[in-house]
Amino acid sequence: MSKIPTAPPEGREKTQQPPQVPIGTLKMGTTVDSVYLLKSFEQRSKKNGDPYFTLQLADATGTAGAVMWDNHDTLLSGILERDDFARVVADVAEYNGATQLSVRKIARVEDSEVELGWFLPESPRPRSEMEEELDAAIASVKNPDIARLLEKFFRHPRLREMYCTAPAAARLHQAYLGGLLEHTLIVLKHAVTSAPQYAPVDMDVLTAGALLHDIGKIREYSWSRSIGYTDEGRLIGHVVLGAMMADTAMRELQREPEGFNDSVRRHILHLILSHHGKLEWGAPVTPKTREAMLLHYADQLDAFMVMACDAMNEAAGKGESWTSYNKLFSSYLYAGAPTGGLHPTSPTDPPRLPAPPPVAGHPDDVFSQTTKSEF
Fold it and tell me: Considering only CA atoms, which of 89, 95, 59, 58 is closest in space to residue 74?
């Protein structure tokens, strides 16, 4: 879950702010007067032909759909545009199980009047902590060519800043500032922790592949006001963009006196190009090495677990034991606690009691009755 800002960042002058009611705290049946980011709006027609608008409003805590039946001259006139900040007066209701705002009034708010931290969520992990972990991973690399490659990327001030602030996705997982770095470090940890079970694995190639597998996302996404796609992000995609960036860097290193091993270049490119796993999932090639397979499954594990946990946490936050039907997993997901309210690894778990003896005639009894020779 991303951090919700409670005050302007240190060093920023605290000016008189318009009202701010986080979307994540809206209550049904109330009226809200707050500033939100106008992510999108669309004009539609009532049955009598008169116009009305549907809107998407957002802040750091989430998004909410809205409808505006009347008083929408500001939208018709073009005074308000997509990605503008808007002061909204609306009634909070529910539509199809989701929060919907019925907007009475809407007006444009100047950027200078808004604390931008309210509108872009951030990773819950401190950036300084994640950067230390990133630098430790780079320092662990022993192959001199790969070490030079990672130094070339992560000692570049502008590129590093983009890498450390970019989101991991526009919507599905870790869609917040610092999400890319957070996701990458988890993927790296999954991959290198599993690697010894499947030796021989080139740990330096695996580390480089993990750190660079999503590097193209710094060009795929934009995140100055809201998280969205760049033109080249939509036209090319981060997998190919990342391979292009890595290949350019490695070929530049090949022209230096130290050179760069061409076999290593091909293997790192293969990890970047194959990390989505399947052609239908956007991978130009499928994984064909131990390192590529480890990276793919580590990447998939984090992305899918984050999406599942987000859905479960949302349901649990509403006091529900099950999520709504999840198309990604083709199932409902259980949001309850399997231990009756305590997390199984919680230090406050009660001591485990010995299992009761099997009941005669119960299906489990067959195992206590069976001798080792029968297996």
Answer: 89
**CA angle 134–138–139, rounded 5-degree value:** 115
The C-alpha atoms of residue 11 and residue 165 are separated, in whole angstroms, by: 19
Is there a single domain that holds both residue 135 and residue 257?
Answer: yes
Average pLDDT over residues 269-298: 96
Which pLDDT tens digit goes with each residue over 9-31?
A: 433 344 455 678 899 889 889 99
For residue 39, the SS3 value is strand
For residues 167 and 85, state if they share a domain: no
**In 3D, which of 86, 60, 88 has the Cα closest to residue 3?**
60
Structure tokens at 354: 């010995």
Query: Residue 91: which domain range?
Result: 23-118
Q: Which residues contact 58 (CB under 8 A, 6 or more apart)?
A: 23, 36, 37, 39, 64, 119, 226
Co-location of 137 and 274 in the same domain: yes
Choosing from 245, 276, 307, the residue where a domain stops is 307
pTM above 0.85, yes or no: no
> Residue 315 is encoded by which pair of tokens?
């349901």
